[in-house]
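User: Can you recover a sequence for this backbone? Please restate the input before giving your answer.

Assistant: Of course. Working from this structure:
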């Protein structure tokens, strides 16, 4: 190991940066996060550095570098766009025992700044001693996804609890074992995300010997199907789940991301076929969480849109089981993206309704009067079977026959189908295209290039 990684205390230190171009700006992005006094000496500075100077985040001296600039400096970055000159300045600093970094000139560097994963106060630095910057970046990208944003907060939370534990456990080895138990034996990223109350409960349980940590249920949005449309939080939840309870419309690509060792329970409801009831689903969630397991309840799209989430949340809360919700991209948003349509358009619609074609009683009644008005726009879920009913109701209430309707089946999936039609032709075109669902009917939305004509017609 040629380079020793150390964490340098920047409180009250002065860091000098010579240069004001892209190299200096890149260094400053990291340095701005420290508590150092930053001095930039350069005749020309970039718009970003100018902004930081105006915000008082650094001091800019508008002139060429001179040797006396090094007086009182703790660290030097020579980061002009001229490598040889950077080397010269670094050598001057080194001669005065000031640690120096010369941008893009490793041999002139007395120290190098590592790639950083910043979850302050937790920081992970990655260095390859200049052998492979690409590897450092790849490792950084990997750690960025694995270390949740809450990592720093977790560290602060434990700091407060450490005093309490220390008072009860004077022996250092005992305390080390104690914290290893809190942090080990479970998925680390999931543990880093727990709330302050949950951590306190875990510490309390461990201190009193009741360390049978309670389970919980995460209600997770699986999005429209494309795994790239999952949130990072959803990915993490899937990686750390003990049990995954999933619906029919959750795609295979998303299921692939579940932890292999997890228990998978299918609770899909197929329209028109006998399937598991909501009460039975609630029971599964309660039973698994009560065993202390981390349960992911995976629902297509966003769990809070036509997902019967209230029933599950109410049932779990009635059993004092913690519930956390991770939103997902709802299928109406994915359908709109597929046809590049803005769901709200200035001058056309001030609101958009998210409707269901079916409810517990059959075809769902809606506020047809307002939907039928010119400019009425809606995204209809579960609307394929109800298309003729919706068409009839809207036209009965005065909607024009030529109002555009776009049907998007399997939005975001490889088998996505888009049908552009009108209210008048909606049921026939759905039948002709063989669309069975899952699909969203976008009422009032046309193919993009025809949009100006349509808007004039509405
Ligand atoms: N919570 C889900 C909706 C569940 S209701 C969400 O936010 O998207 C089930 C309905 O969602 C289906 O009948 C269909 O209308 C719609 N749907 C789900 N996935 C879809 C997809 N990939 N493309 C189009 N519609 C989809």
């Amino acid at each position: 190991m040629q380079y020793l990684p150390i964490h340098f205390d920047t409180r009250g230190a002065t860091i000098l940066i010579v240069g004001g171009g892209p190299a200096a700006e890149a260094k400053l992005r990291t340095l701005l996060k420290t508590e150092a006094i930053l001095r930039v000496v350069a005749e020309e500075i970039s718009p970003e550095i100018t902004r930081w100077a105006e915000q008082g985040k650094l001091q800019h001296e508008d002139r060429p570098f001179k040797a006396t600039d090094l007086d009182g400096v703790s660290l030097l970055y020579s980061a002009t766009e001229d490598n040889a000159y950077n080397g010269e300045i670094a050598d001057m600093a080194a001669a005065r025992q000031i640690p120096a970094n010369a941008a893009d000139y490793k041999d002139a560097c007395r120290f190098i700044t590592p790639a950083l994963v910043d979850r302050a106060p937790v920081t992970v630095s990655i260095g390859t001693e200049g052998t492979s910057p690409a590897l450092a970046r790849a490792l950084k990208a990997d750690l960025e996804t694995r270390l949740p944003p809450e990592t720093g907060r977790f560290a602060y939370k434990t700091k407060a609890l450490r005093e309490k534990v220390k008072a009860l456990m004077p022996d250092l080895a005992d305390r080390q074992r104690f914290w290893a138990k809190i942090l080990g034996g479970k998925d680390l990223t999931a543990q880093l995300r727990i709330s302050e109350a949950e951590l306190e409960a875990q510490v309390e349980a461990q201190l009193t010997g009741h360390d049978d940590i309670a389970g919980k249920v995460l209600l997770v949005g699986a999005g429209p199907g494309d795994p790239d449309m999952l949130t990072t939080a959803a990915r993490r939840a899937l990686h750390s789940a003990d049990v995954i309870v999933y619906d029919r419309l959750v795609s295979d690509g998303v299921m692939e991301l579940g932890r292999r060792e997890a228990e998978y329970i299918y609770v899909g409801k197929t329209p028109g076929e006998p399937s598991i009831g909501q009460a039975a689903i609630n029971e599964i969630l309660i039973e698994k969480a009560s065993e202390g397991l981390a349960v992911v309840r995976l629902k297509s799209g966003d769990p809070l849109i036509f997902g019967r989430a209230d029933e599950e949340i109410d049932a779990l809360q009635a059993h004092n089981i913690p519930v956390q919700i991770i939103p997902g991209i709802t299928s109406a948003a994915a359908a709109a993206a597929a046809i590049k349509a803005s769901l709200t358009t200035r001058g056309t619609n001030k609101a958009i309704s998210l409707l269901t074609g079916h409810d517990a009683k059959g075809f769902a009644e809606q506020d047809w009067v307002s939907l039928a008005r010119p400019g009425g726009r809606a995204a209809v879920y579960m609307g394929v079977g109800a298309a003729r009913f919706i068409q009839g109701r809207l036209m009965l209430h005065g909607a024009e026959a030529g109002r555009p309707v776009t049907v998007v089946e399997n939005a975001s999936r490889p088998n996505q189908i888009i049908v552009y039609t009108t209210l008048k032709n909606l049921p026939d075109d759905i039948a002709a295209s063989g669309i069975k669902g899952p699909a969203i009917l976008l009422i009032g939305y046309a193919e993009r290039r025809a949009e100006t004509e349509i808007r004039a017609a509405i």
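That completes the design. Residues 224-225, 249, 299-302, 305-307, 330-331, 335, 381-382, 408, 410-413, 437-440 surround S-adenosyl-L-homocysteine (CB under 6 Å).
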